[in-house]
Amino acid sequence: MTHQGKRSAKKVSTCHGSTKGSSGRPCRRFLSGPRVEPMQLKKGMSVLDLIRNGYTKTGAFNGGRLAEACALFSRMIEENATIAMTVSGAMTPAGMGGPIISLLEAGFVDMVISTGANLYHDLHFALDLPVHQGDFRADDSELLDAGVVRIYDVFLTEQLLLDTDTFVQEAMRRAKSSGTLASDDAGGVSTARIHNVLGRDVLERCKYPERSLLAHAARLGVPVYTSSPGDSSIGMNLAAMRVWGDPIDVNPDLDVLETTAVVLCAEKNGVVEIGGGSPKNFYLQTQPTLAQILGINRGGHDFFLQITTDSPQWGGLSGATPAEAVTWGKINPNDPGNSVVVYCDATVALPLLASYALSRHKPRRLKRLFDKLDTYLDELRREAQKNRRRTRRN
Hints:
Layout: H1 3-12, H2 47-58, H3 61-78, E1 82-87, H4 97-105, E2 111-114, H5 116-126, E3 132-133, H6 140-146, E4 148-151, E5 154-157, H7 158-178, H8 191-205, H9 213-220, E6 224-226, H10 233-243, H11 252-265, E7 269-274, H12 277-284, H13 286-293, E8 303-308, H14 322-327, E9 339-343, H15 346-360, H16 373-393
Parallel strand pairs: 1-2, 1-7, 2-6, 7-8, 8-9
Antiparallel strand pairs: 3-5, 4-5
Helix pairs in contact: 2-3, 3-15, 4-9, 4-15, 7-8, 7-10, 8-9, 11-13, 11-16
């Protein structure tokens, strides 16, 4: 054996069961985690078994992070945290409204913040307008000529979009004429009110309301917000109604205040972030709104779970880590174990996460936050005014 070979052999053999490595430095603290075990798959095993006895025992890479995410989501549920879910990307066109609906019904998600596009495309399923599996390699010029639009490998027709537009406009006009969307003293309505109206219209008029996230949210008292009201076909249709002399005033200030009030009035707050984007920050900013703007310091959110394909080094919000969010006062720094990021396509990870939670836990009592928004807003105003008077005296 060469001299180099002897040195290599010596290094390999030193740290097994010892407190020190070959350099004399302590190594046991780095080896305190469970040993990696080969994943054992069995015929007929459940998702619960796959996570507990598969990903948990390997503990490696994003399979390990998925197991940690499942455990963290379980803690949110067990500790009765008020759980928000933020949704970006094309989740509902890809059928991911289904897992979210199951979580809403079980009481495992109490508030939703989504891109408007996800909420618009959710309506197709209730209206029985077909969304088709397609081929991402199709010729886009040919699709255009055929009146087909695509979201990667999901195909829709232009007529489907026009029919959905008609439904949105008619639902808004019905709500306005009935007084359901009358503005409050602050002027305008929040997007939660808009989406509740759409959900209730789906329940009353659509062929398959059970397929709609908005319908279930309306029935279960779950407020659904969008952080960018004008950035979707729902917003486009609302803008068109203003041109036609039938405007509905959407007030983004109310969205900020209502979501912040929900966070203020909760004992513990947690979030499941599907993707990143604007919905991610819109929820996380509730803590800086309280602490930095209104002077009510809650210490940051208690739980943070994100499924994303974005990495942090590009500087974008979608890939920003929970550690970075700590510096902004968005996440409580006292327990780093309360934050997990899974780097995975959400169409893979979300159904596994949801199935695990549904298999492990009994349904929770519904919080019905939508029904309490006015009460929570009153509490926020009282706390903010009290703190403002205190600040002025000092």
